[in-house]
Amino acid sequence: MTKKYLLAPGPTPVPANVLLSMAMPMIHHRAPDFLPILESARAGLKWLFQTKNDVLILCSSGTGGMVASVTNFFNTGDKVLVVNGGKFGERWTKICETYGLKVKEITVEWGYAVKPSDIESILKAEPDIKGVFMQAVETSTGVYYDVETIAKIVRNFENTLLIVDAISALVAHDIKSDDWGIDIMVGGSQKGLMLPAGLSFVSISDKAWKANESSRLPRFYFNLKKERDNLLKNQTNFSSPVSLIIGLNEAIKMLQAEGLENVFARHARLANATREAVKAIGLNLFSKESPSNSVTAIMMPEGIDGQTVYKNLREKYGVTGAGGQDKAKGKIYRLAHLGYADTFDVIVGIASLEMALKGLGYNIQLGKAVAKAQELLMK
Question: Phi and psi dihedrals of 8, rounded to 5?
């Protein structure tokens, strides 16, 4: 028997009490007994997103929320600015181009963060840009972008919206939607919220709702105005994913019991221990600046393939992390510390990585990285 450990940046482990809550007998999504559950989950999302605005719940993966963030607020031919520093920045470009938007990209070298001043310079030079699309965490590189500074820049441009993919950042990073002036922010269930995939969340500012009034892009399922109208009846527009929303309500209660500041501190602590542990055995981070608290991207030693490490860990030790994508494939191994994660998830991740590297010929003193992680996690 091999016990399985899930240490990927999505999906992430689901707590037992959340799983059990989703196993309760099915109830009807329009029945009175479901309404207080949905109402509680909605209030919890506003708390997590740090917004007074409603957070819409969509039955989709996070990408569905990204699509809705394009189709509900823009028109064919609108010029938008996309931050492309990894696979998920590329996704913003592909979605925008699919719906006929004219995309101007800021291309950021993988492993680096976008410079807010570059965004400001472009917006000043091209005031007809209608939207800035960015990640909070670029999951493929393990980099966190300076959302706060960028948001405060974009809010000065009356006709420009800021759209943030926070799917991998929510829970791990303190992102203040209203205080910073984020117009549209997207989340997903299978990351920090400790749920299976299947829900996306979209918070929307008054400025963005104004843009919605003149948007004419085609939409049917992802019609956010209809979703908002149904919220007046405490309903979703189409059939609610009842079991997932029950689980969402339970997961949010766990986070609320811990406290938002404590949740952020826990993720920062785990991330720091992971980073320092891998450095202790001579490995480098792929993120050259602003590493994320969600996932650590680790450069593999010369001559050792990151995909081989990923496969070895999964098949021999039962530990599932993540390999590299696209140009980083084979070069890195990604280890998450997101959602339902604590001290011994990091210890397992680091210990198994040491063992896999040793088995593949890397000259390493077993336990050195683990000792560093233990030292930091005891504080």
Answer: -90, 160
Residue 232: pLDDT above 90? no
pLDDT above 90 coverage of the chain, percent: 96
Determine the Cα–Cα distance for residues 155 and 147; give it in Å rounded to an integer: 12
Name 20's Cβ contacts closer than 8 Å, sequence gap at least 6: none
**Interacting residues of 379 by C-beta distance below 8 A, sequence separation 6+:** none
Q: Strand 295-299 to strand 322-323: parallel, antiparallel, or no bridges (unpaired)?
A: unpaired
State the burial class of residue 28 (Cβ atoms within 10 Å of its Cβ: 0-12, 13-18, 19+): exposed
Q: Residue 354: CA atoms inside 13 Å, Cβ hemisphere, count? A: 23
CATH of domain 5-10+259-377: 3.90.1150.10
Where in the chain are the domains?
5-10+259-377, 16-257
Kindly report the pTM of this predicted structure.
Answer: 0.97
Q: How far apart are CA 165 and CA 117, in angstroms?
A: 20
How many DSSP H helices and E strands does the chain contain? 14, 14
Asked if residue 274 lies in contact with residue 346, where contact means CB atoms within 8 angstroms, the answer is yes
Amino acid at 135: Q
Q: Kindly report the CA angle at 7 between 5 and 9, in degrees rounded to 5? A: 150
The backbone torsions φ and ψ at residue 192, rounded to the nearest 5 degrees and listed phi first, read -65, -20
Pairing of strands 319-320, 129-135: unpaired
- CA-nearest of 240, 313, 316, 272 to 172 is 272
CA distances from 95 to 98, 133, 169, 190 (A): 5, 11, 20, 21
For 39, the enclosing helix (H) or strand (E) is: helix 35-49
Whole-angstrom CA distances from 1 to 13, 315, 316, 318 are 20, 12, 11, 10
H/E element, 349:
helix 343-359
Residues 37-85 pLDDT 10s: 999 999 999 999 999 998 999 999 999 999 999 999 999 999 999 999 9
* Average pLDDT, rounded, for the chain: 97
> Can you give the length of the chain in residues?
379
Tokens of 203: 């918070």
Fold adopted by 16-257:
Aspartate Aminotransferase; domain 2 (3.40.640)
For helices 343-359 and 260-280, the axis angle rounded to 10 degrees is 20
